[in-house]
Amino acid sequence: MIDIGKQQPDARPVVDTHDVDEAREAIGRIFCPHFLLVDGAWKSGFHAVHDVVEEPGHSINVVSYGSAVEIDPGELSRFFLLQLPIKGRAVVRCGGKETDVAEGRTATLLSPTLATRMRWAEGCEKLIVLLERELVESHFETLAHERSDRIEFESAIDLTHGIGQGIFQHSMLMSGAAKGIGHFPEAYRIMLRDGLVNLLLHGLSHNRSGRLQRSSQGAGPVPVQRAEDYIRTNAEQPITAADIAEAAGVPLRTLQDSYRKAKGRTLMAAVQDARLELLRKTLLTPSGDISVADAVFASGLGHLGRAAFAYRERYGETPSQTLRQSRGWS
């Protein structure tokens, strides 16, 4: 069992009830209206618990029902639903395909235009990332530079290797950022969100995959420089890859390929580097009683430990050492 804790440690869950009708109504308001059925043999153990943190374009949820339940939402319509089991098992039918879901083995990604029906076993608990349909489709359109009518993923995700492991670990980072929402800057959380959408679109099979596999023409040096300038000017802001492409004036996928060839790194790696440079500048010329944590978050870097590690890898000293030296402390 993977213990990810409560989304907001000092707050009660949004849903915490032993009443089936109350759970159906409350969880339906968070996701969508649905049928919720409990086998009579399991009703005594029914206990619906739902933690949720709402974020721009997505939400992070932890859901459990205690007993075995059947859930029938039909078509989700307005969102994609990435369901990652952190305890127990489930059977998920999406479109015409059925997936046996199990902790550490298999997860599912539900598409808004495919009918879904699920059976969660007793004790099943899931980390669920809701991604607004408009967000995913807009990201695809920016990548492919063409309109998307509908995107339908193969629902099963193998968590035992490769992209599945990457999706799981990335989602856990998002969950951690959601738990500490007051301590992680929006720039970091937006970067995680868009990173997940990119992983799903590029790493998983869907009906529009071929559109992302076509080779793109080079962008040339001018858009690449525009992208570089935009990144350096706005590094501490919650910018996305799509924002950078818009500033550069070329399709995102074209810019991604050209930028990687010209600079030897990805766009988001460039954003990370710019934020590290901003952090170093802040630490070298500190104002008032600013702390390392304050400087890290002001630079758009969301995870203190990872930022400190990346900083030391790049500059050969820790952020704390830089700050002490700048203040003349031994």
Q: Percentage of helical residues?
A: 40-55%
Strand percentage, roughly? 15-25%
Secondary structure tally: strands: 12
Uncertain stretches of 5 or more adjacent residues: 5-11
Alpha-carbon Rg, integer = 22 Å
The dominant shape is: globular
From the N-terminal CA to the C-terminal CA, the straight-line distance is: 46 Å
Structural class by sheet pairing and helices: alpha+beta
Overall mean confidence score, pLDDT: 89
Order of helices and strands: EHEEEEEEEEEEHEHHHHHHHHHH
Largest sheet: 7 strands, antiparallel
Q: Please work out how many helical segments DSSP would assign.
A: 12
Strands of the widest sheet, in order across it, are 1-3-4-11-6-9-12
Write a brief structural summary.
The chain contains 12 helices and 12 strands. It has 330 residues and is an alpha+beta fold.
Overview of the structural elements:
The protein is α+β, with helices and mostly antiparallel strands. It has helices at 20-30, 133-144, 162-179, 186-203, 209-213, 221-234, 241-248, 252-263, 267-284, 292-298, 304-315, 319-326; strands spanning 15-17, 35-38, 48-55, 58-64, 69-74, 79-87, 89-94, 97-102, 106-110, 116-120, 125-132, 156-158. A 7-stranded antiparallel beta sheet has the order 1-3-4-11-6-9-12, sandwiched between helices. Strands 2-5-10-7-8 form a 5-stranded antiparallel beta sheet, covered by helices on one side. The radius of gyration is 22 Å and the shape is globular.
